[in-house]
Amino acid sequence: MDFPTPSPDKKELEEGGLFTPHFGQNGLLTAVVTDARDGMLLMVAHMNAAALSLTLETGIAHYWSRSRGRLWKKGEVSGNFQRVVEIRTDCDQDALWLRVEVAGHDATCHTGRRSCFYRTVEVKGGKAHLKVDGSVPKFDTKATYGRSG
Amino acid sequence: MDFPTPSPDKKELEEGGLFTPHFGQNGLLTAVVTDARDGMLLMVAHMNAAALSLTLETGIAHYWSRSRGRLWKKGEVSGNFQRVVEIRTDCDQDALWLRVEVAGHDATCHTGRRSCFYRTVEVKGGKAHLKVDGSVPKFDTKATYGRSG
């Protein structure tokens, strides 16, 4: 699937029906992924044109893994695939919102937890620290990935 | 507020209580902003250390505006401030999730709509196009910003 070049016309970009995703200088756009069931934020990832194209064509979320420098079918090792229920884009078309159903262990984070956002930021005495929200791994990450993490 | 340098120890980064936000090469991290009321995704923005510090100190969301190249107190013109209910970070601490209450017109998008994500991506005949979800401006953007957009 090819994506047209974004229009220089702001009105066309913001109000038009043409999907012209704006990939940044690194060829990536940001994808926000929430659970279609209850809206829980599961992860923030990145897509290049190939990942977005595969996602639209197959209905299964694909990303660009920046750490591994390769196309990444989410769940390819763990079985925790994401079936796309809906995709939205924002006003300037440089971010996507995927509402998904998670297969397998109902887990998205590589730590085994349901969501990557398992820690709240708390401020106390002028300093910020983190507090785990109580969520624990839903599968054996060592057995699945071959090593911790 | 100063933020310590991220630890090279993955376990400390992912399981520890130390908040060490990882700002990218451009000095920014991604902030996902949802409505604390119902989980609606309102916007995706960016923060540098100063914006994050101000947000934590005041409880009102501040960002770094990439288009304007300056610190941005969201709502400074429109009155649509965001009161932070909760902040979370993800496993590798390079993204934040802000759950907020929106003041003013209950609108976040500069087009006047409640959310920036007012269009769904639809695939038909192998091509993707956009469909507005029916949401309309909640305030007069021309009168507020001095010009359209």
What does this structure look like?
The structure is a homodimer. With about 150 residues, chain A is α+β, with helices and mostly antiparallel strands. The first copy, chain A, has three helices and eight strands. In chain A, the strands form three sheets. The first copy, chain A, has a four-stranded mixed sheet with strand order 2-1-6-5. In chain A, strand 1 and strand 2 form a beta hairpin. The longest helix of chain A has 10 residues. Chain A is globular, with a radius of gyration of 17 Å. The two termini of chain A are about 35 Å apart. Strand 5 of chain A pairs antiparallel with strand 7 of chain B.
- Give me the side-by-side strand order of the main sheet of chain A: 2-1-6-5
- Number of separate helices of chain A: 3
Q: Based on DSSP secondary structure assignment, what is the total number of beta strands of chain A?
A: 8
Largest interface: A-B, 50 and 50 residues
Oligomer: homodimer
Question: pLDDT below 50 for ≥5 consecutive residues: which ranges of chain A?
Answer: none
Order of helices and strands of chain A: HEEHEEEEEEH
Shape of chain A: globular
What class, by secondary structure content of chain A? alpha+beta
The largest β sheet of chain A comes out as:
4 strands, mixed
Distance between the termini of chain A: 33 Å
Beta fraction of chain A: 25-35%
Rg over C-alpha atoms of chain A, rounded to the nearest angstrom:
17 Å
Mean pLDDT of chain A: 95
> Percent of residues of chain A in helical segments?
10-25%
